[in-house]
Specification:
The chain is α+β, with helices and mostly antiparallel strands. It contains three helices and three strands; from the N terminus they run βααββα. This is Regulator.
């Protein structure tokens, strides 16, 4: 039985996924009620499953970093 690797991202990776947006904008986006729930809260910050974040980005009608 093969195990699937757990792929995780933090705020920096999300910034890059959204085109290099600011840290403040990432905080605003990850605080949204419709953004995926973090899988862990570490001292360095929250982490999310990559697949959840990718799905959230794909579901947005426009660039998430540019939205209100």
């Amino acid at each position: 039985m093969a195990t699937k690797k757990l792929r995780l991202v933090g705020a920096h990776e999300i910034r890059m996924m959204l085109g290099g947006i600011s840290r403040q904008r990432v905080y605003q986006i990850t605080s949204r009620r419709d953004f995926p729930t973090p899988v862990a809260e570490l001292a360095m910050g929250n982490v999310w499953r990559t697949e959840d974040v990718e799905a959230w980005i794909a579901s947005r009608p426009s660039r998430a970093g540019a939205e209100d």
